[in-house]
Amino acid sequence: MSKQIQQEVVDSRRTFAIISHPDAGKTTLTEKLLLLGGMIRSAGTVKGKKSGKYATSDWMEIEKQRGISVTSSVMQFSYRDHHINILDTPGHEDFSEDTYRTLTAVDSAVMVIDGTKGIEAQTLKLFKVCRMRGIPILTFINKLDREGKDPLELLEEIEEVLGIESYPVTWPIGMGKRFQGTYDRFQKKVEVYQGNKESYYVDFDGENITSDVTEHVNELYLPGLVDELALLEEAGNEFSVEKVKQGLLTPVFFGSAIANFGVQSFFDAFLQLTSPPQSRESSVGTIKPTDGSFSGFVFKIQANMNPAHRDRIAFIRVCSGKFERGMNVTLSRTGRKMKLGQSHQFLAASRETVDEAYPGDIIGLYDSGNYQIGDTIVGDGTSAFNFDALPKFPPELFVKVRAKNAMKHKHFEKGITQLVQEGAVQLYRTPYFGDNILGAVGELQFQVFEYRMKAEYGVDIEFVRMKHDIARWVDRKQIKDNMTDSRVMLVEDRDEHAVLLFENDFVLRLFQDKYPDVTLSTPL
Ligand code: GDP
């Protein structure tokens, strides 16, 4: 493929994730984007995950319940000459390291905020990962059809809590029952809200209220709008595409996903303001998406997607060149050569074989245990290299785990080693007694672990929940015996690095005050 065609293919791609707190409207917005792309004909196709509690003991049931977050880990569609890949970031009970890792495979993010609530905990966590990567983040403030927080307060919150500059591209006119629509500061148009009917646009310069505008927008609201727009011009941030691309400034849009209001204009702006797949750093320097040879990395491994096959799927983000079915690749970590025969991309609820894929695309490969999270694969003819390691994300929940039946020790060890390798849970050991401690980012990980230990390795396990919820990596040499107790526990991670587990933030701060010379680090 010529360099120019490859460049065009790359430029047309947008690979992003939607980050939000549960219930902010991610599913609803995703659905509206799929509608735009002609992927679904009517709303209500994208299933929510709220159809009941998980049956703790039934992994297959968990899979079923997880519905969309598994089968549509990636949604791909075309819209206005762009190839769109939306990567799902599992939330709710199935929030896990996968949720974070998915963010290492995207080039931009949409942050959905519930306008009645403002920034919530999960949004903040996910935002930090996006921020660390310096990718563009566009904000959609949702639920304007309901009475919510003052828009200026919301902007302040974004700046203070998230520490990012904001620039409202659209501005709401009223809200809740009084919601009139939004003003687009770039296009100088009002998008008129019509409830469930389709919205339309009216020109308005933002200063001179004429009958052309008052015919469509209740004039009671217009003087207030003019004042607010003037205030934003005077006191607000200056817009800079450069800053957006570096993730230093978030363009903000207001709308209502459920009414499909402001979604299309948001997405059109999104395509303009975000970047196509970018270069990535590796052990042999920068790898450009337009480099001729295929390369990609594994960001997620999903076991048992199809209960009938009990297979594992490795999700690979294509970073350069072109993927073709049946091509030969090398797995850099082991040097092993493989033919990539069975590959799939995931489209809504059905699997389709993918014959080719380009930078930004995600392919799912059947895996019989070859891959690990973070692995790089490169096309034939290229000498093996590794993309920079994926960051580790500190777990926030910890349990002590052991086999109920001590006779099953061997199976237990084997199971724990393999499941930990998949990366869903982290393993720690206490230095003297060698107790096994599992750490996870989300509760569901433990349930899945328990179920799979039983189903795949025949081991019943028991958990003892620990009170600790913060992990910090330390230099073992700095830690004296008298520094640790039941609230500050010393353990080792898989790589035998020393880790302190703290009972809570208060205990952590107390420790820092007492031992200021001890350097505590997080993977983030
Ligand atoms: P998710 O958990 O972030 O995926 O959120 P959902 O998309 O499932 O939405 C959570 C709830 O908020 C559902 O009951 C939606 O119908 C509702 N919702 C989503 N968008 C809007 C909106 O724009 N306005 C209002 N009033 N409700 C909304």
From TrEMBL:
InterPro entries the record matches: EF-G-like_DII, EFG_III/V, G_TR_CS, P-loop_NTPase, PrfC, RF3_C, RF3_dom_3_sf, Small_GTP-bd
Binding-site residues, GTP: 20-27, 88-92, 142-145
Listed SUPFAM superfamilies: EF-G C-terminal domain-like (SSF54980), P-loop containing nucleoside triphosphate hydrolases (SSF52540), Translation proteins (SSF50447)
Pfam families: EF-G_D2, GTP_EFTU, RF3_C
Highest taxon of the lineage: Bacteria
Function as written in the Swiss-Prot or TrEMBL entry: Increases the formation of ribosomal termination complexes and stimulates activities of RF-1 and RF-2. It binds guanine nucleotides and has strong preference for UGA stop codons. It may interact directly with the ribosome. The stimulation of RF-1 and RF-2 is significantly reduced by GTP and GDP, but not by GMP.
Membership in a protein family: Belongs to the TRAFAC class translation factor GTPase superfamily. Classic translation factor GTPase family. PrfC subfamily.
Name of this chain's protein: Peptide chain release factor 3
Organism: Priestia iocasae
Chain's gene name: prfC
